[in-house]
Amino acid sequence: MKILVLLGNPIDHDSRVKNLITALSKDKSNLIFLQYLKNDTEQSDYNFMKNNVTVKSYILSKNLIYSFFLLFFPNSFKSKKIIKKNKAINTNPLYTKFRFIYIPIRYIYTKMYLLLRGLLLLDPGIQTWIFKKDALKFNPDIIHANDLSTLGLGVKIKKKCRSKLIYDSHELETDRNLKLSFVQKWIRHYVEKKCIKYADRVITVSESIANHLSKLYSIKKPLVIYNTPNFKTLKKKSSIKECIFTKNIVDISNVNIIVYIGLVTFNRGLETLVSSFIKFFQEPINNKPNYLFIVGPMSSKFYSSNLGLFDQCRNNNIYVLPPVSYLEIINIFKYANVSVIPIQNCCKSYDFCLPNKLFESVFSNLPVAASNLFELSEFIKKYKCGEIFNPIDPEDMAKKITKILLSDKKKYINDRKIEEIKKIYSIEVQNKKLIDLYSSI
Question: N or C: which terminal CB in the chain sees fewer CB atoms within 10 Å?
Fold first, then answer.
């Protein structure tokens, strides 16, 4: 079976797609072709790859639209500054002689560029169309389109190659943590509504999103495949020297360690978490000093908007660190005391989310303090594996984190609870659902 996997973002931190390929590649009769967009900072190790997996990456150009425009009007602009300021310094003698003609034409081209840029930005999958030529050449039996950015292309390839199409909605695409205009939101809804009808099966990450998609588009309820980690990997033994805590704290056995792992960006509740820690955690708890670690890729806009916040971190036992390897994440969860998920309820996609860090924390025997989002609350209440707080209230956040630090870990997480959770959420259960889906499609 030839399986085409389309991904419209870097694969570095996309554990869901890595798990997908790992599960499907166990069957040696499957030939898998992964196409994805990469950026300049990506450092993929491709540990999930096997002999029957081919990977091709494409550069995620920040200047795609600018390049696209110059393809049709190569002599219109000398630099990006011309587009921004509509000014140019041209040494060509013809420019001086025919300036009265050139300037109006250049002005019209500039306006055309700005219009074209606006129109192209409305298409959520514009950059993934560079996959098309290689995808058609592969001639797949099944297309696995991850997120809305690849769905339109998946439909196109399905029609050309008469393939089966699986749409994997990692988030609620019509209500995400993105600053979109009303028109952009309407376009995203229109594209998903039009294209989802062509999908032979739809899968997603939580029951709430599955129910929402089914009701919104009048389709069969999507199959839910949770973003759960490999339990055996989390139990892998590793040296304490590999843990980032030892690089910043001399004796990690006699401290309270609070961790946040994930994107460092807007609406993740990090501003509230930091202010809560500075205000309420400067005094020791159980005669142990408190440390907060924030680990993950950071949005440059978020950093520039919160310079004061990061200045406060330096002298208050708060460490903001870049992304680390998966082995180090395992160590972080092993030696930490509480995992915090302070996501803000800014969109339905967040309200309905069940992030992989939730499962990684729980399967690592680490209690969770999380926002009172719908899916997170339901999970934590059901298994009593942590505490729920108001994500916009620093005091409430501090109370719930302190409650976990003062309690015995086994009150929240023990072997019996983990076995109960594994019956529904383990990677083996998710892989079986996925393989059964591919067998029946």
Answer: C
**pLDDT tens digits for 131-149?**
999 999 999 999 999 999 9
Return the amino acid letter for 180: L
CA 202 centroid distance within chain: 19
Contacts of 58 by beta carbon, 8 Å cutoff, 6+ apart:
35, 36, 37, 38, 130, 131
With cut-offs at 50, 70 and 90, classify the pLDDT of residue 75: very low
Alpha-carbon distance 45 to 236, whole Å? 18
Percent of the chain with pLDDT over 70: 78
**Torsion, CA 357, CA 362, CA 364, CA 366, rounded to 10:** 100
Q: How far apart are CA 307 and CA 43, in angstroms?
A: 27
* 3 state DSSP class of 324: coil
Half-sphere exposure at residue 122, Cβ-oriented, CA atoms within 13 angstroms:
14
**Is 233 within 8 Å of 331 (Cβ atoms)?**
no
The tally of CA atoms less than 13 A away on the side-chain side of residue 370 is 27
Taken in order of first residue, the domains within the chain and their CATH numbers are: 2-60+124-228+430-440 (3.40.50.2000), 64-121 (no CATH), 231-423 (3.40.50.2000)
Average pLDDT, the chain: 83
- Return d(Cα 273, Cα 106) in angstroms, integer: 50
- Cα–Cα distance measured from residue 378 to residue 383, given in angstroms and rounded to the nearest whole number: 9
For residue 346, the SS3 value is coil
Q: Give dist(CA 252, CA 59) in Å, integer.
A: 41
- Burial class, 297, CB count within 10 angstroms (exposed 0-12 / middle 13-18 / buried 19+): middle
Q: Which of 145, 149, 80, 102 is nearest to 121 (CA)?
A: 149
Q: Span 115-144, mean pLDDT?
A: 78
DSSP symbols for 351-380: HT---HHHHHHHHTT--EEEE--HHHHHHH
Taking the CB of residue 305, how many other CB atoms lie within 10 A of it?
12
Residue of 85 and 98 predicted with greater confidence: 98
Q: Which two tokens stand for residue 319?
A: 């460490």
Element (H, E) at 89: none
91-95 long-range contacts, Cβ below 8 Å, gap at least 24?
none
User: In degrees to the nearest 10, what's the CA dihedral of 251, 254, 260, 264?
Assistant: -40
